[in-house]
Design a protein that fits this description.
Length: 343
């Protein structure tokens, strides 16, 4: 167990590798109730959120989920977030360590016709992830879930508990994230676990799973000094939409790229870690932001910022690991290409 953002969090249950492989091959369950939730409502909510975030909120329909980010005027990332659109509100799911910062930032900019409520304390969150997750959850609910497309959600009940059931996740596999009142989220956990053949998973394999997909982790791969363009999040950054905070800086960043978050796998037997220096042809060209031993690929994999132009797939790198140069190769992400997320 470790302390994180005011919560006691399990690092692992049966073991990192076993939990990781369970998610890739069958099904794992995570308690991620530490995540923050902010409800945004009012007549001006859509316009407000479209101004505050880089993605286009106006393209969302009720029942849609959207991955996005909030930036400062200079383009630095305040947080990467999920937005869920309900009939009467939006729910923003934010990183636990950034909850207060996000809440204050939104309130500093909100107009009078927008209301923001922090519902984190009363909201629990369970993530059921893996190729078998749909069948397991269908058994728990007694209903067909095949009509919930990727990045959408519906409201319903699990064992009599009101819940939001979303086709979202942080693993690259078919999965669902279930939001409910924190006082009764345990009922949902027990109801799902009673189905059987489900592996409880901790924080450690959540990290190795997201690494295999090249999903960013705030505080490692993205932060207030990094913008979405250089973080490889240009696909969620809609520079052609109306004005939003950071737009001009991000247009400039796209036109004047200096570095890019790059995925690489180790050729030599070694594990890259955050802060290790990256070299190409004898010259220092970047720094590792995340690294791990991939349980599935059984090799070291990493993410790091590399000088623009030195980031192409197939290019050779050397990683300085405790004074020894270890060979690596830039790859086209994700590392794991057979995920079931969109099935």
């Amino acid at each position: 167990m470790v302390d994180f953002a005011g919560y006691r969090m399990p690092v692992q249950y049966s073991g990192i590798v076993a939990e990781h492989l369970a998610v890739r091959k069958s099904c794992g369950i995570f308690d991620v109730s530490h995540m923050g939730e902010l409800n945004v409502s009012g007549a001006g909510a859509e316009e407000f959120l479209n101004y505050m975030t880089v993605n286009d909120v106006k393209t969302m329909s009720v029942g849609d989920a959207q991955y996005s980010a909030m930036c400062y005027e200079n383009g630095g990332i305040i947080d990467d977030i999920l937005i869920y659109k309900y009939a009467d509100k939006y729910m923003l799911v934010v990183n636990a360590s950034n909850l207060e910062k996000n809440f204050n930032w939104l309130n500093e900019h909100k107009p009078d016709d927008v209301n923001i409520v922090d519902v984190s304390a009363e909201t629990g969150l369970i993530a059921l992830q893996g190729p078998d997750s749909r069948n397991i959850l269908q058994n728990a609910l007694g209903k067909d879930l095949s009509d919930i497309p990727f990045y959408t959600f519906e409201e319903g009940t699990v064992d009599g508990v009101n819940a939001t059931i979303a086709r979202t996740g942080y693993t690259g596999e078919l999965g669902f994230e279930i939001y409910a009142d924190s006082k009764v989220i345990g009922v949902i956990w027990d109801s799902i676990m009673n189905i059987g053949n489900i592996t409880p998973c901790g924080l450690a394999c959540r990290d190795t799973l997201r690494m295999e997909m090249k999903f960013c982790l705030y505080g490692n791969d993205i932060d207030e000094k990094i913008n979405p363009i250089e973080a490889g999040l240009g696909w969620i950054t809609k520079l052609n939409k109306e004005n939003f905070i950071g737009k001009e800086s991000l247009i400039s960043a796209k036109e004047n790229r200096t570095k890019l978050l790059t995925a690489f796998e180790m050729v030599d037997r070694a594990v890259p870690r955050k802060g290790y220096k990256i070299f190409a042809e004898g010259n220092e060209v970047g720094i590792v932001t995340s690294g791990t031993q991939s349980p599935l690929l059984q090799k070291g994999i990493g993410l790091g910022f590399v000088q623009f132009g030195k980031h192409k797939s197939g290019m050779a790198l050397d990683i300085d690991i405790r004074g020894k140069m270890k060979k690596a190769l830039i790859i086209k992400p994700p590392f794991y290409k057979n995920g079931s997320a969109q099935l």
